[in-house]
Amino acid sequence: MKNYKYNKRKQKNNALKILFTIILIIIIAMAIKLIFFNKEKTENIKEVATQNITEDNEKPVITLNGKEKEIVALGSIYNDKKAVAKDNIDGDITDKITIDGVVDTNKIGTYEITYKVKDAAGNESSIKREVKVRNSIGNKGLPVLMYHFFYDKNTESGANKDNNFIEISDFEEQIKYLSENDFYFPTWEEVEEYIDGKTILPEKSVVLTVDDGDDSFFKLAVPVLQKYDVDATSFVITSWYGYRANEKQENVSYQSHSDCMHEGASNGKGVMLSWTKEKIIKDLEDSKKALGGNATIFCYPFGQYNDTGIEALKTAGYKLAFTTQGGRVYKGSSKYELPRVRIMKTTTLSSFKSMVN
Ligand SMILES: [Zn+2]
Fold first, then answer.
1. How many angstroms does the Cα of residue 54 sit away from the middle of ligand 1?
2. What is the CATH number of the domain that holds 232?
3. Angle, nearest 10°, between helix axes 349-356 and 168-180?
């Protein structure tokens, strides 16, 4: 009996020992696994990080501000619009751009500027700009051309069209001429600076304006402007065609031809001549708003204006205003009574050439 009890206890102790050993082995195995697994994980992360640095084989992207080809006047100050650079890894690296080439505006000729940039991994990109220095327009003045409506003789007769219309192939001939002869299309800022005597415009400068902003301009004329990369301003009657200003179009900028003032009053003249200054200001502000708040140039409805209108334009923040009177714009021209050169259905290519040269 005594022996039996002893054996039973011994068996129990042995079972406990085995259990302990198994638990111990499990704990050790888990500990080993934990250490090795973690080590593996850290090594993986390290590897991914090294891969990211060594695998930047992508070149940075460098883009010009302004045009690829520029034209400046002899004796003017060249204002390099420079370039911007972005890299897939480094982000904006514009400040790392180096510039090669100098434009001597005191010497007629063609100059080349090269903009170069390198990312941290050593990938390099570059882009070039051509700058032509040519004679200034001197005292010849700046022609600002005035167009209205367009038609296509293949689809409609021009017999009943008045002189505000121009046949689209005639228009294309003119635009092609300007493009092939390297004409320069100054911005409105440049036109204002030219009037103020703050900038010199190059020879063969010309500005194109198209009044009203009707469908024929967008359907027929805009594709021609884009084909030859020639810029034009659309003077939009915003209450009629203001929705057009939301259509961003290459080569087209939008300015105001009033919001609701392109209407006749009972005296047979445009309403702008009889409205109060406050009423005109409200209209000018509405028009500016319809054009995204950027309008600074105005074109008088029917070309009619008076002192009240001029005062209203100044208050509403417009800087230049065009009439329909014939002539060129000069240094010192009256900024709110600017003349234009009217292009008509009957304008031949040879008379067009003399109008712009
Ligand atoms: Zn008009």
1. 62
2. 3.20.20.370
3. 40
